[in-house]
Design goal:
two-stranded antiparallel sheet; single chain; 2 domains; alpha+beta; globular; 10 helices; 452 residues
Length: 452
């Protein structure tokens, strides 16, 4: 009887444990599909308080600490850009009807985009709203709008309103790496600005061949023999529906546009290239953050259910973090960057403003130095490694990415980054070890391990 009772007690305990384990497993999303649950803990995208640059400005306006000035021609736009430290020289113009305010966008009235390392601002002349988005260190992309109209009360400034899911219909899909994020699209536009979706669209970044970029955008600047889809319309049903020669090497935006409605007379090709890179780089940072926080959150659930030590980390959790880290590392080091076939020359003002934020080593080198002959940057490591978003990554994934980064930069060329020469690796490592003290410590640890 005693043995039977003990056996029943043991089986009962095991049944409870099995049930708990099953519940825990049901709570854990499939690896790689966790991003769809970002509205729930541990991310809680909707409920969490944003702390990004736009959120901080909104608080400052509400408290009276900051005043936004009204411009009779441009509304709140110039003052908002100034307070957010966004240069007007970053202006790019998109005429395809692929935005929230498509009824106001046309080839004669394109949408202007302005940006810096953490803020994106969209404005269409005559449209009722200005669109803003910012990279929150915990939440990724957060979206806002401002009514672009002057209040009857002269002392009242604009009210910045956080988006309630309208933007996320397009900005949280596979095109944004399944997190709230950003995307630059290239389409085949009709003369009306409507995309010809039957011909396909592309989400573009630094890996996209130049001949597939900028469809539906105006592009100014010189690029020699390089061709892109900017400045032209898809007017043919042939295999090549756009005459790319017509849109090449344009010094200014077309006469059909009333340039006085915009802050700059350009839609700079270099600004567009930076915009493409950093939009998906931001998404990769957010994906790494989300995946790690979700993996660690569900690891706690599993550890409790299975009576494991609190600090136990499973192989699946480790793989999930490393997969997201490897994706981030590839974006960081411009893996598979499309080569340039000719010299690109953009707006000097944009390049000057972009490089004002450079962190330089003792030899004057930085990750913001442009090449624009064979590739985008002289030193192919993303400038966003110096961003608050990268610095705020969970320790588990940031440590992994930085360790792998040092391994790559101190290794040989026969790895996942064959485009990086030995000189590239040496120079990038030198820049990072002088501009990021933590990377210098990692380099020393790597050398110590090799010496052992």
């Amino acid at each position: 009887m005693f043995l039977r009772a003990s056996l029943l007690s043991f089986l009962g305990a095991e049944l409870i444990r099995f049930s708990l384990s099953l519940i825990a497993l049901l709570l854990v999303p499939a690896i790689g599909a966790g991003q769809s649950d970002f509205h729930r803990p541990p991310i809680s995208y909707d409920q969490a308080t944003a702390t990004d640059a736009v959120a901080r400005l909104s608080k400052a306006i509400e408290s009276g600490e900051v005043e936004i000035d009204w411009d009779e021609d441009q509304g709140w736009l110039p003052s908002l850009l100034e307070k957010l430290n966004v240069s007007s020289a970053s202006q790019t113009l998109v005429f395809s009807k692929t935005s929230l305010q498509i009824e106001h966008i046309s080839p004669a009235n394109p949408r202007a985009l302005y940006f810096n390392d953490e803020v994106y601002v969209g404005a269409v002349p005559g449209a009722p709203r200005i669109e803003l988005s910012a990279v929150d260190p915990k939440l990724g992309a957060v979206f806002y709008t401002v009514d672009n109209e002057k209040s009857s009360d002269e002392s009242t400034g604009p009210t910045i309103v956080r988006d309630q899911h309208e933007c996320l219909r397009c900005h949280s899909t596979g095109k944004t790496q399944d997190v709230p994020g950003f995307l630059i699209r290239s389409v085949y536009p009709k003369r009306s600005g409507h995309p010809r979706y039957e011909l396909g669209t592309a989400t573009t970044d630094h890996t996209t061949p130049m001949e597939e970029r900028f469809g539906g955008w105006y592009v100014t600047g010189s690029h020699g023999s390089i061709r892109h889809r900017g400045n032209v319309f898809a007017t043919s049903d042939t295999d090549h529906p756009m005459d790319l020669d017509v849109g090449a090497n344009q010094a200014a935006i077309p006469n059909r546009i009333a340039s006085k409605k915009y802050l700059e007379p350009s839609s700079d090709i270099v600004a567009l290239m930076v915009l493409e890179h950093q939009s998906q780089m931001h998404n990769a940072i957010t994906r790494a953050s989300y995946e790690t926080r979700m993996a660690m959150h569900y690891q706690v659930v599993m550890n409790k259910a299975l009576e494991r030590p609190e600090d136990f980390i499973s192989d699946s959790t480790t793989r999930r973090i490393q997969d997201a880290g490897d994706n981030l590392l590839r974006h960081l080091l411009f893996a598979d960057e499309a080569p340039l076939a000719d010299q690109i020359v953009g707006e000097p003002k944009f390049i000057a403003d972009f490089q004002k934020q450079a962190k330089r080593d003792s030899q004057g080198r930085s990750l913001r130095d442009f090449d624009l002959k064979k590739r985008m940057f002289v030193h192919p490591c993303s400038f966003l490694i110096h961003s608050e978003a990268f610095e705020s990554l969970p320790t588990e994934v940031r440590d992994y990415v930085e360790r792998r980064l040092v391994e790559v930069l101190t290794g040989q060329t026969d790895d996942d980054f064959p485009s990086l020469s030995k000189d590239d690796r040496r120079d990038i490592l030198a820049i990072l070890t002088e501009t990021m003290p933590r990377m210098n410590n990692r380099r020393k640890s790597r050398l110590h391990e090799e010496g052992s």
